[in-house]
């Protein structure tokens, strides 16, 4: 008989019995889930990451079979389509470079699949990025976040979302380029969201400019600290002994 959908969503005992009667082979696993989670509408939120994509020159995985993504950014189909373009380009390059046809004995599928597998660093980047669900908040908070995001982009600090959708950079390079974006956005959002008045575009621009300036000053200080880690090192140089350097300076002074 057909299940009663409302009861499946609300009645734990009913759902447990339904699974036991209709899916006995899965019951030992699903029974535990039913007992530990409210039986609302579950999303199948998982990602699949194949460690190796190809088997010699015989076959290769592409799309979700190689790098499944979470659904939050709608990128799984996009990555799959990019896979086909990359494979096509690799095939055409070998045909052109070797001046052969695809059914030629010297056509090397394994070489193509190995080169194609280098794309894994980019699809891994995307799959890991999609782990994070959308940031919860009110409509007003969402709009404020977007204002800050656009201002950061204008000032040369793009979000990964922007790089992903509006550039042709590989995902891994795009992630490197956008590493500073989210921490700065969170910092600026926390400041502006505490204001007891409506936030204007000018407010966003001023706070964004100030936050970027603070970040650059901090980075500069960190870089200086790497070069010289102590007051003595900064004065004498980290490769010298302070006492002997002082002696050299003393002996170089004219006797008065």
Description:
By secondary structure, the protein is mainly alpha-helical. 62% of the residues lie in helices and 2% in strands. The protein has 14 helices and 2 strands, in the order H-H-H-E-E-H-H-H-H-H-H-H-H-H-H-H. It has helices at 5-10, 12-22, 27-36, 64-67, 76-98, 109-117, 120-129, 139-154, 160-166, 171-177, 181-192, 201-227, 231-236, 242-251; strands at residues 54-55, 59-60. The protein has a two-stranded antiparallel sheet. 18% of the residues are buried.
Topology readout:
Elements: H1 5-10, H2 12-22, H3 27-36, E1 54-55, E2 59-60, H4 64-67, H5 76-98, H6 109-117, H7 120-129, H8 139-154, H9 160-166, H10 171-177, H11 181-192, H12 201-227, H13 231-236, H14 242-251
Antiparallel strand pairs: 1-2
Helix pairs in contact: 2-3, 5-6, 7-10, 8-11, 8-12, 11-12
Helix content: 55-70%
Q: Note the total helix count.
A: 14
Radius of gyration: 29 Å
The helix-and-strand class reads mainly alpha
Report the principal-axis shape.
flat
Poorly predicted regions are 238-256
Query: What is the element string, with H for helices and E for strands?
Result: HHHEEHHHHHHHHHHH
The beta-strand count equals 2
């Amino acid at each position: 008989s057909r299940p009663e959908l409302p009861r499946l969503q609300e009645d734990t005992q009913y759902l447990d019995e339904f699974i036991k009667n209709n899916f006995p082979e899965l019951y030992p696993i699903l029974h535990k889930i039913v007992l530990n989670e409210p039986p609302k509408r579950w999303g199948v939120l998982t990602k699949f990451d194949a460690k190796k994509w190809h088997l010699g020159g015989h076959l290769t995985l592409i799309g979700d079979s190689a790098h499944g993504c979470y659904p939050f950014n709608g990128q799984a189909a996009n990555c799959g389509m990019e896979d086909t373009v990359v494979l096509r380009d690799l095939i055409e390059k070998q045909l052109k470079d070797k001046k052969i046809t695809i059914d030629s004995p010297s056509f090397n599928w394994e070489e193509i699949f190995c080169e194609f597998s280098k794309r894994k660093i980019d699809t891994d980047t995307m799959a890991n990025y999609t782990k994070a669900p959308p940031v919860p908040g009110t409509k007003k908070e969402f709009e404020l976040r977007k204002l800050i995001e656009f201002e950061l982009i204008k000032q040369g600090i793009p979000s990964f979302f922007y790089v992903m959708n509006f550039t042709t950079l590989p995902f891994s390079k795009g992630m490197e380029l956008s590493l500073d974006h989210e921490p700065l956005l969170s910092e600026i959002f926390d400041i502006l969201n505490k204001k007891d008045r409506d936030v204007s575009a000018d407010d966003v621009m001023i706070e964004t400019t100030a936050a970027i300036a603070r970040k650059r000053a901090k980075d500069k200080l960190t870089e200086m600290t790497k070069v010289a880690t102590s007051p003595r090192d900064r004065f004498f140089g980290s490769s010298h002994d302070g006492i002997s350097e002082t002696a050299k300076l003393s002996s170089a002074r004219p006797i008065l």
